[in-house]
Design brief:
Blueprint lengths: L1 E6 L2 E7 L3 H14 L5 E2 L2 E2 L2 E2 L2 E2 L9 H15 L3 E2 L15 E6 L5 E4 L7 E8 L7 E4 L6 E3 L5 E5 L4 E4 L8 E10 L8
Antiparallel strand pairs: 1-2, 2-13, 3-6, 4-5, 7-15, 8-15, 9-14, 10-13, 10-15, 11-12, 11-14
């Protein structure tokens, strides 16, 4: 399933990753096996907002990142690069990809990813009915809502404000999110 959403002058890609069951299972397995190596950046609303693992512990995340890079080029005419290590010039010591886990009653507040990136994306690894929709918000438009599904990859402009509604299911919602960067990367950034 491929869907190019036109929302005003904004384009968002929604696609079910080929062999998504395999891809998501591998990523989830690597994530769960390496819980002791997770680094956490900050809490919001009592939960850790982003959870990071170095690429050596979750090598399977390369697959969705490369898919997003290629779709950005083919469908949006945006040339980008998938980075697996932190940018040296940024104070943030974490890689440009992370996991989000939301239990029942938890949500992700409105935010953007605008700093240096050219595309952002999220892949749903574990969701249930009522896990909470991804929503996009911009002035003079009704919110755009996208229902999460295991294996669904959503690619969007990093400056676009977005959040995730409250997880009303009894199952944790687990997603993998990342940023892609302009190619070539300015030499001062790498």
């Amino acid at each position: 399933m491929f869907n190019l959403i036109h929302w005003g002058n904004t384009k968002i890609i929604e696609i079910k990753v080929e062999n998504y069951s395999d891809v998501c299972s591998r990523i989830l397995n690597e994530f769960h096996l390496n819980q002791s190596k997770i680094e956490k950046s900050h809490k919001i609303g009592g939960r850790w907002e982003n959870q990071y693992l170095e690429i050596e512990y979750v090598p399977s995340v390369r697959t969705p990142m490369r898919i997003a890079r290629d779709l950005g080029k083919d469908k949006l005419d945006i040339t980008s690069i998938a980075l697996f290590e932190p940018l040296r010039s940024v104070a943030n010591p974490y890689p440009p990809f992370w996991f989000n886990i939301a239990s029942n009653g938890e949500k992700t507040g409105l935010h953007d990813h605008a700093h240096l990136s050219i595309l952002s994306a999220v892949l749903y690894l574990q969701v249930d009915a009522q896990s909470g929709d991804l929503f996009f918000q911009k002035e003079n438009f009704s919110n755009l809502r996208i229902q999460p599904e295991v294996g669904k990859l959503v690619i969007f402009p990093p400056h676009l404000k977005h959040g995730v509604e409250i997880n009303q299911s009894s199952k944790e919602r687990i997603s993998f999110a990342f940023n892609l960067f302009p190619f070539p990367i300015p030499s001062t950034e790498w």
